[in-house]
Automatic annotation (TrEMBL), chain A:
This is Lactate utilization protein. SUPFAM superfamilies: NagB/RpiA/CoA transferase-like (SSF100950). It holds the Pfam family LUD_dom. Residues 40-216 form the LUD domain. It comes from the Bacteria.
From TrEMBL, chain B:
InterPro entries: 4Fe4S_Fe-S-bd, 4Fe4S_Fe_S_CS, FTHF_cligase-like_sf, Helical_ferredxn, LUD_dom, LutB/LldF, LutB_C, NagB/RpiA_transferase-like. It comes from Marinobacter adhaerens. One of its GO terms (molecular function) is 4 iron, 4 sulfur cluster binding. Keywords: 4Fe-4S, Electron transport, Iron, Iron-sulfur, Metal-binding, Repeat, Transport. Signal peptide: none annotated. This is Iron-sulfur cluster-binding protein.
UniProtKB/TrEMBL annotation, chain C:
It comes from Marinobacter adhaerens. This is (Fe-S)-binding protein. GO terms for cellular component: cytosol. GO terms for molecular function: oxidoreductase activity. It holds the Pfam family CCG. Residues 16-96, 143-227 form the Cysteine-rich domain.
């Protein structure tokens, strides 16, 4: 008998009594009375509490803010989406105050060393955010692959205020995650950190050292 | 290499708990490190739950886990089906050794020489690193705490904060000695050095091995919490990702995850959420540019299906591995994680390990508790830990007439001498006349009471028998 | 663990007094103090002379047959429908929380549950059923409260001791650090794992001494002999007594209170 069958049989034929299936009442997780302003305020507070940075922007000026941010970091380049409107807008703008724009359109195997060593910053879209925990929702795909938000030391994320949910449960239900998940989905809630050395916080362990969120209101 | 490659078995003898506990108690560094670390974690947890109806939230956590356990075999089948549809290969392992062989076989099939690891307690349980090393495969830990512990050739002393027993100076010396970093008390410098060293390993590793915090049956999703980013690296960069997990980790839906995640991170470290919450549902699709080509899940039993047989002991499987129990345990705080000599230390270790290694090997575990209940009070899924400890004590002396013992190694602590003492005690205390006679005699002869009474009087004066018992005093009052 | 909603009975005319074996043999004064406090509230105290022990020592050691046989002998002591008051969080907890489990699937299951439902820790009973009002006749003094783990987590009475002590106007109540941490008694734990228990009680005594108090009170004799015994052996300047002894000695002599 295979191990699979051994294990499943032991579980199916358990000796104890019948196991009751308790009701699960999720209402303790519900926060349905937060205004957009409150959500933005909470989101900002949470992200800043973990050394993230939040900038309030509009459709008109987010690129200005982006340019400022990149200049202060001395970023030599910026990895941008190929097809997403953010990437399109950045390429079409042809701005002098932005560093070299790079596109991730080759399989990682062909340029891994370059990505790991030479790319200073990346910008990605998001699929919304969660106010309660200060989290961004990302579903990496062919246009914005996984390593884009992981490898470069500076990660800039664009969040639409209209897509800011209050709780994780609210977000997953609104976006119907139960219907199917992508190969990789993420919640990002700050720059990478650790407290493994005597509970002292240190940032930028393996993931980005900086997380910068541009909220488009 | 042969089928049964030699690897160290349980290389720490659990029976040596007493000497280790003794040594830890007299080690000022361990006492100081654990005291301040646990105080910090307890305080952070408390703050994180402010504003929550915590009791209701814990009820939800308990019910979510119980609902999953009630349907465990069906959920595992559903999980396997969805994962397979998603392109993830599912393997089943009856015990840790088989799980190690499965991982090895996947590595060998890919001619893998190096494995990079994300944090996984189940992989510690399996002693995977030792096994792979004996097979000529290098397994490197990438979580900073685990990395440090691995450099020191030690095991983790806490399930969430593996290097909690070390302070900065020690870590600096360790890294200097093993990897050539400068001696420094600058945590940022040490972290940056580790980052650089490990980045190279991520890029070159053949296989990434990770644990799983929650496995979701409805969507075929493996969920991982982490702060550093090494979990994402481990499960994204190497071409092959192998996830290992215990069979009890499956839940029906993503909605269940929303409840458990709210409890897990706050209970563990007082964080509202970890930096990354990673949800993996498949390998790299044809059009994707990164991600592993192959993803495997190894479902590990290793004694869990035995726990599952018993209605009371089953509650042990609710555990979501947050570590709150050990953070609040006065025993753990004083002896540290290594004294237990087991993969899982602290209260959860005491109720889980006897099933994994047997009550004979783990004979000291159930009694190493004052039953204070601090653990049960903070457990996010309301595991009645003190009750389970009492049950395991019952099993240790072979159960009773109503409840014959079931746990592997039961009866290991039964001694005919102690059994006789309790029988005598019961005879006296179940017979009021004999009890009153005995106690009044004791008080009459209290001058002869020894001032030394074994272990008690090593630390305290002996309690003093009264001149008259309460029974006598009440009788004198006419009551 | 704690009763989610404690439904206190209305003040009865009688109660059963279950002294506990530790009070019986080592601290009978505390038992007498409890009786006096109840009688001053106008309650008749019934003391079943056949009481011995709640069975906890055997229970926590895993010898459940023996625990059951001793507990069984206690079940018949309370035939009338009066509350059963216990000067101990630990024994109270054993009876209230564990008797139902201990007698599950036995012919005594119903009786055990019925008895368990009538068990009250004594200070809890004084405060929340008798609504006792204490008048302090003593000199100014400082005291710390040690709430036992069972009093806190099984009987849910952590607030009771401080409230009662707070009624005494000449008593300055101080709180030690980590008040909710176990003192290390744990019954047989103290002798099975003496070094760990010793480390715990040592820190507890230090915490008490640090407050500047020279005395502590508690509902539990196990904790009392543990903490006071350690302090005595190691010449630490703190002594202990059962909270009932303390309350009685601070207020004795005054006539009965209106209920």
């Amino acid at each position: 008998m295979s191990s699979r069958e051994t294990i499943l049989q032991r579980l199916r034929n358990r000796t104890g009594g019948e196991l009751t299936v308790p009701e699960c009442d999720f209402s303790v997780l519900v926060r349905d009375d937060w205004s957009t302003a409150k959500r933005i305020e909470r989101f900002e507070k949470m992200i800043e509490s973990v050394h993230g940075e939040v900038h309030h922007c509009t459709e008109d000026m987010w690129m200005d803010r982006l340019a400022e941010v990149l200049t202060t970091r001395g970023a030599r380049n910026l990895l941008i989406p190929k097809r997403h409107e953010i990437g399109q807008a950045l390429r079409n703008a042809g701005r002098e105050d932005l560093p070299e724009l790079l596109i991730y359109d080759e399989p990682i195997e062909s340029w891994q060393a370059h990505l790991f060593n030479e790319v200073d910053a990346s910008i990605t879209s998001t699929r919304g955010g969660i106010a309660e925990t200060g989290s961004l929702i990302l579903w990496p795909n062919n246009d914005e692959p996984r390593l884009m938000s992981l490898v470069p030391p500076v990660h800039i994320a664009v969040l639409k205020a209209s897509e800011l949910y209050t709780t994780f449960r609210e977000a997953m239900q609104a976006q119907n995650w139960a219907a199917g998940m992508p190969t990789n989905a993420l919640l990002i809630s700050g720059p990478s950190k650790t407290a493994d050395i005597e509970q002292t916080l240190a940032y930028g362990v393996h993931g980005p050292k900086e997380l910068i969120v541009l909220i488009i209101e | 290499m042969s089928e049964t490659a030699e690897h160290t078995g349980h290389h720490i003898d659990v029976k040596e708990f007493h000497p280790r506990a003794q040594a830890a108690i007299h080690n000022p560094k361990i006492r100081k490190n654990f005291r301040s670390a646990m105080d910090g974690l307890m305080s952070k947890r408390k703050t994180a739950f402010e504003g929550w109806d915590l009791e209701t939230l814990r009820d939800l956590g308990a019910n979510v886990r119980l609902r999953a356990l009630a349907n465990l075999p069906e959920l595992l089948e559903q999980l396997e089906k969805k994962l397979t549809e998603n392109g993830i290969k599912v393997h089943w392992a009856v015990d840790g050794d088989e799980a190690c062989r499965i991982v090895r076989d996947i590595c060998k099939a890919r001619d893998a020489k190096t494995v990079i690891k994300g944090k996984s307690m189940v992989s510690e349980e399996m002693e995977l690193n030792h096994y792979l090393k004996a097979e000529g495969i290098e397994a490197l830990e990438s979580d900073l705490g685990e990395y440090i512990v691995q450099l020191a050739d030690e095991t983790p002393s806490h399930i969430i904060m593996p290097a909690i027993h070390k302070n900065t100076g020690e870590i600096s010396e360790l890294m200097h000695e093993k990897t050539g970093t400068d001696l420094s008390n600058d945590v940022e410098y040490l972290t940056a050095s580790a980052r650089q060293q490990l980045r190279e390993k991520f890029m070159s590793a053949d296989v990434g091995v990770s644990g799983v915090n929650f496995a979701v049956a409805e969507t075929g999703t493996l969920c991982l919490v982490e702060n550093e980013g090494n979990g994402r690296m481990t499960t994204t960069v190497p071409k092959c990702h192998i996830a290992v997990t215990g069979i009890e980790k499956v839940v029906p839906s993503m909605e269940d995850v929303s409840a458990l995640l709210a409890l897990l991170t706050r209970s563990a470290t007082g964080q509202h959420i970890t930096t990354y919450f990673n949800m993996i549902s498949g390998p790299r699709k044809a059009e994707e540019l990164d991600g592993p080509e192959e993803v495997h899940l190894v479902l590990v039993d290793n004694g869990r299906s035995s726990i599952y047989q018993d209605d009371e002991l089953l509650d042990t499987l609710r555990c979501i591995r947050c570590g709150a129990c050990m953070n609040h345990c006065p025993v753990y705080t004083r002896v540290g994680g290594h004294a237990y000599g087991t993969t899982y230390p602290g209260p959860i270790g005491k109720i889980l390990m006897p099933h994994l290694i047997g009550l004979d090997e783990g004979r000291h575990l159930p009694s190493a508790s004052s039953l204070c209940g601090a653990c049960g009070e903070v457990c996010p899924v309301k595991i009645p830990i003190p009750d389970l400890l009492v049950r395991l004590r019952q099993e240790s002396v072979d159960g009773d007439n109503l409840h014959p013992a079931k746990v592997r190694g039961h009866g290991a602590k039964r001694s005919s001498k102690e059994a006789l003492i309790w029988k005598g005690w019961a005879w006296m205390h179940a017979s009021p006349g004999i009890y009153r006679f005995g106690t009044s005699a004791a008080t009459k002869f209290r001058a002869l009471q020894p001032s030394k009474a074994g272990a008690w009087t090593d630390y305290r004066t002996a309690p003093k028998l009264a001149a008259k018992t309460l029974h006598q005093r009440m009788k004198e009052r006419g009551q | 663990m704690v009763d989610p909603i404690k439904v206190y009975p209305s003040k009865p005319s009688k109660v059963y007094f279950y002294g506990t074996c530790l009070v019986d043999m080592f601290y009978p004064d505390a038992g007498i103090a409890g009786v006096e406090l109840l009688e001053r509230e106008g309650i008749e105290v019934l003391f079943p002379q056949d009481q011995t022990c709640c069975g906890q020592p055997a229970y926590t050691s895993g010898y459940h047959d023996q625990a059951r046989s001793v507990a069984r002998a206690q079940l018949d002591l309370f035939p009338g429908d009066w509350p059963i008051v216990v000067p101990s969080g630990s024994c109270g907890g054993m009876m209230r929380k564990h008797y139902p489990d201990l007698f599950k699937d036995t012919p005594d299951e119903v009786k055990a549950a019925e008895v368990a439902g009538r068990v009250w820790e004594l200070t809890d009973f004084l405060l929340n059923v008798c609504h006792i009002k204490l008048e302090d006749l003593g000199e100014p003094t400082t005291v710390a409260m040690h709430t036992s783990c069972s009093a806190r987590r099984e009987m849910g009475v952590a607030e009771v001791g401080p409230k009662l002590l707070g009624q005494l106007k000449n008593v300055n109540l101080v709180e030690q650090v980590r008040p909710e941490e176990c003192c290390g008694f744990g019954g047989t734990f103290a002798v099975r794992h003496p070094e760990i228990s010793g480390a715990m009680v040592s820190e507890k005594v230090d915490a008490l001494v640090e407050t500047g108090t020279r005395q502590f009170v508690t509902t539990d004799c196990g904790c009392l002999m543990n903490i006071a015994g350690y302090a005595e052996k190691n010449e630490k300047p703190v002594e202990g007594q059962h909270i009932l002894s303390f309350l009685w000695s601070r207020t004795r002599g005054k006539g009965g209170q209106q209920s």
